[in-house]
Every structure is written in structure tokens, then in C-alpha cells.
Amino acid sequence: MKSIFHKLLLACATLPFFTSCSSDDNNNNNPIEGTTGDVELFFDNGVNGDALILGNSYTNSNGETLKINRFNYIVSNIVLVKADGTEFVYPKAESYFVISEETGAFTADLTNVPAGDYTQIKFGIGVDQQRYLEGETAQQEFWNHASANNMVWTWSTGYRFINFEGKFTSTSVTGEKNFQIHQGSNSSTDNYRTVTLNLPTSARVREGEMPNVHIIADANKILDGETKIVLGQNLNPAGTNASIMGGNNLITVAANSLQMFRVDHVHNGSGNHHE
Questions:
Q1: 3-state secondary structure string across 90-151
Q2: DSSP-based three-state secondary structure for 180
Q3: Beta 241-244 vs 177-183: how paired, if at all?
Q4: To pair with 81 at 20 to 30 A between CA atoms, which of 51, 62, 66, 212?
């Protein structure tokens, strides 16, 4: 590849009056109106700057060590935004994805996106009330998919937006305990949240090409975010398990989840790039 690149540079240098050389052709530089391309959102799960590996232990600023066994979440209602504020709203019926460290599902693949240069992305964490209230039949395919990935309760209680589980040790408790954080909406609160992220480099959507937007998701933020949640203070009466599935803690988790995501980089061009 290096020799080919050097030959290209030499060709450019010897033909200054006839043509110009570029790593992008005109189609890359100028989106053609009316054409579409694809976009891949790749979610790279981590814990406070380290790669997330299920079964590994991570210590947070609360003085608790977590051995994470499950980290799954739903992203939805994706919107791509150009520098001038023009928005492309991905079709709602197709805009629900389960990201799962457990099953290796890390991508949200978007098709038929209008060609253009996008500088911002918006998406929801979970399933919005409007979609949920359309009923089970209207979303049966996604409901079944979410159910297979441990992202639902019953239909009457709805979806789990975040499913975060494992074991923990704490200075405030004796021995290793289980923890379960199942974030979702309930009858008293709507815990669906929308994230807005700026892209460090424009995602250039072109016909026949697929930019990859590499998004870091930091599981540490769920408990160790702007507001701290100490698992050792949330044990059940038997003292065996810390379960957060309702109450004010879920509102805190929803707020913390807004800080969970950031765009690391954007790969433009054809092919998949996950590094």
C-alpha cells in the first residue's frame, strides 16, 4: 500500500498542469442531490476509560468494585443533523435497536440516508411513550427481539431501557452481593431520555459509501455519574441483593445516562471500521 501511495504522489507531482489528485473523488466531495447512502453507528462499551469485558472487575469513586455480567440498552429515534440545522429523522418504525455486550450486538445500521455531511446525532435511550402506546401488535417484531435480549418486563410494565447487572463488593457491606439495575418508564415517571452528540468530524453520507460513527458508552456513568448511587445503600431486607428498578434512583439513572455517551471518531468511506 505504501508503494502505491508513493506512486500516486509522484504522478501528481509530474502532472501539475493537467489534473489534480485527491483521495476523494467528486462524488465524495459533493453529495449528489436525491441520492442516499448508509450509516453505521458502532457502540463501544467501556468503564471509565477501560474496555468493558464481562466478568472483569472495575472500581468506581464510590469505593465499590463491580464485576459486570450484563450491559444492554435500547437506542431509538435516531436523527442526523447537518451543520445548517437540517435534520434527517430516521423512519420511526425502523429506529429501535438493542445494543448488547452480552450478545455482541454493537451496531445500529441506518439505510437510505440522504446524501450530505452530518455534524450531529440525536437518539433516545429506551422506548418513548408514543411508540409504547401504539400497542403490542404494532411493535411485535421489536418486542420479540427485546424480549430475547432481556430488555422487557411484561407487556403491562413495558421495556427495560438499560439492563445492567453483576456482582459488587463495598466497604459498607460484608462479602460479595448481586446487583441489578433495570431502567425503564413506569406509571409514575417517564424515564425516556434523548442524547445529543456533536461529531468531531462530519459523517459524509454518499451513494455506495458508509460512514461509521464510533460512539463510546461508559457504563460507569450509571452509578458514578453526576449524581452518585451507592449499591451498598440499596440492599434488599435480606441483605443479599441491590436491586434498582423503581423510585427516585431510576430518575437519577435516567439523568446519569445522558452523560454515558460520546462520539470518539468518525470513519468516512466504504467498509466497516470498528477500531
A1: CCHHHCEEEEECCCCECEEEEEEEECEEEEEEEEEECCCHHHHCCCCHHHHHHHHHHHHCCC
A2: strand
A3: parallel
A4: 51
Phi, psi of 248, deg, nearest 5: -65, -30
Q: pLDDT tens digit string along 49-103?
A: 999 999 999 999 999 999 999 999 999 999 999 999 999 999 999 999 999 999 9
Q: For 181-217, how does the pLDDT look when each residue is reduced to its tens digit (9 = 90+)?
A: 999 998 789 999 999 999 999 999 999 889 999 999 9
Cell of 99: 445494543
Report the alpha-carbon distance of residue 226 to residue 236 in Å, rounded.
25
The DSSP 8-state label assigned to residue 231 in this structure reads G
Q: Which three cell numbers stand for residue 9?
A: 504522489
Q: Are 47 and 59 in contact (CB under 8 A)?
A: no
Encoded amino acid at 28, one letter: N
Q: With H, G, I as helix, E, B as strand and everything else as coil, classify residue 233.
A: helix
CB 211 within 8 A of CB 186: no
Q: Backbone phi, then psi, for 201, in 5-degree steps?
A: -135, 140
Longest pairwise C-alpha distance within the chain: 82
Contact 191, 234 (CB under 8 A): no
Q: Which residues pair with 203 in a beta bridge?
A: 118
Residue 163 and residue 73 in contact, taking contact as beta carbons nearer than 8 Å: yes
Say if CB 12 and CB 18 are below 8 A apart: no
Classified as helix, coil or strand, 170 is strand
Q: Work out the number of other CB atoms within 10 angstroms of the CB of residue 30.
A: 11
**What's this model's pTM, rounded to 2 decimal places?**
0.87
Residue 74, helix vs strand vs coil:
strand
Give the CA radius of gyration of the chain.
22
